[in-house]
Amino acid sequence: MKLPRRQFLHLAAGAAALPAVSRFAWAQTYPTRPVRMIVPFPPGGQIDIIGRLIGHWLSERLGQQFFVDNRPGAAGNIGTEAAVRAAADGHTLLLASVTNAVNATLFEKLNFDFIRDTAPVASINRIPLVLEVPNSFPAKSVPELIAYAKANPGKANIATPPKGTAPYMAAELFMMMAGVELVHVPYRGSPPMLIDLFGGQVQVAFDGISSSAEHIRAGKLRALAVATAARLEAFPDIPILGEFVPGYEASGWCGIVAPKNTPIDIIDKLYIEINAGLADPSIKARLADAGVTLLTGSTAGFGNFIVDETEKWAKVVKFSGAKPD
User: Fold this and answer.
1) How many CB atoms lie within 10 A of CB 115?
2) Residues in Cβ contact with 257 at an 8 Å cutoff, skipping those fewer than 6 apart
């Protein structure tokens, strides 16, 4: 069933009954106390780092502390539920990610509806993914990998983080669109996965470019393609997967959402300040160092993007038959 796009773009619902002057005054004084930014993953990961970077910027700009509250568990659903149940006054925000879009279908029963229960504020970044193999693997290109997988169905292993993560879903999308069968080998994170990839215990992997970049540059891994829609500035010689599998694109992403009915004036204020941060040279440089690319646009555009991502990954989840770990 197609998700109701307009349902997600109801930002003014909670403020509609208030006089315009009251709403303006409310936004002028916001925030009136520290703001909690829920990150539904453990500290130290890439999304957590981005949340702290944006939180520090907002603290300096708006005169109140924006602090990260890590709420890991249940593939991000624990933190997400805490955010959607919070008061819709702008003092609790959620750093949403592609996992939220995937979980809408991956989990049959959730205590919330992510699209219905949140309001988009601002997109922040994409997290580019790379398809890579060890130097010992015979395939030296995407067409050779596809040919190998078709000639040896179910024999090649593909290393991925847990189900619902961007690399896992990228692998499922690749298998679906390329018509190949690879065997998932789950890992808790990139470091142990890369160790086994170096040693040839697994033959293929999707990984974030930031954690694999130094190994690719050092020649320890062979990058077959990036999963982005365009070549990466830092790796212009690596082709995009879409050159070989037309229409293919997959990446991680994150952005800020608020509980539904958060006043539009507060959302607008946050949107302006977040995008001012994304335009700041120091923040742009730090995001580039983290291996991510900017994902900017309007609040409505971010809402449309989340709906599109949810629909896209719903098809992949259903095709793969994936179930939560």
Assistant:
1) 21
2) 83, 93, 94, 96, 118, 119, 120, 121, 306
CA angle 229, 232, 238 (to 5 degrees): 90
Q: How confident is the model at residue 4 (pLDDT cuts 50, 70, 90)?
A: low
End-of-domain residue from the set 243, 270, 288: 243
Q: What are residue 129's DSSP bridge partners?
A: 208
CATH number of the domain encompassing residue 301: 3.40.190.150
| pLDDT at residue 24, rounded to an integer | 52
Phi, psi of 133, rounded to the nearest 5 degrees: -140, 160
Q: Report the chain's C-alpha Rg in angstroms.
A: 20
- Could you tell me the CATH number of the domain that includes residue 209? 3.40.190.10
Do 236 and 216 fall within a single domain? yes
Average pLDDT over residues 263-286: 96
pLDDT at 206: 94
Q: 127 pairs with which residues across the strands?
A: 252
- The predicted model scores a pTM of 0.85
Percent above pLDDT 90 for the chain: 73
Tell me if residue 159 falls in helix, strand or coil: strand
| Cα separation, 181 vs 310, whole angstroms | 24
Q: For residue 113, is it within any domain? A: yes
Does residue 91 lie in a domain region?
yes
Contact (CB, 8 A) for 118 and 88: no
Say if residue 31 is preceded by a cis peptide, omega within 30 of 0.
yes
Pairing, β 157-160 against β 183-186: parallel
Q: 217: number of CA atoms within 13 Å, CB side?
A: 9
Q: What is the pLDDT of residues 72-129, one digit of tens each?
A: 999 899 999 999 999 999 999 999 999 999 999 999 999 999 999 999 999 999 999 9
Structure tokens at 16: 């509609």
Specify the amino acid at residue 127.
Answer: I
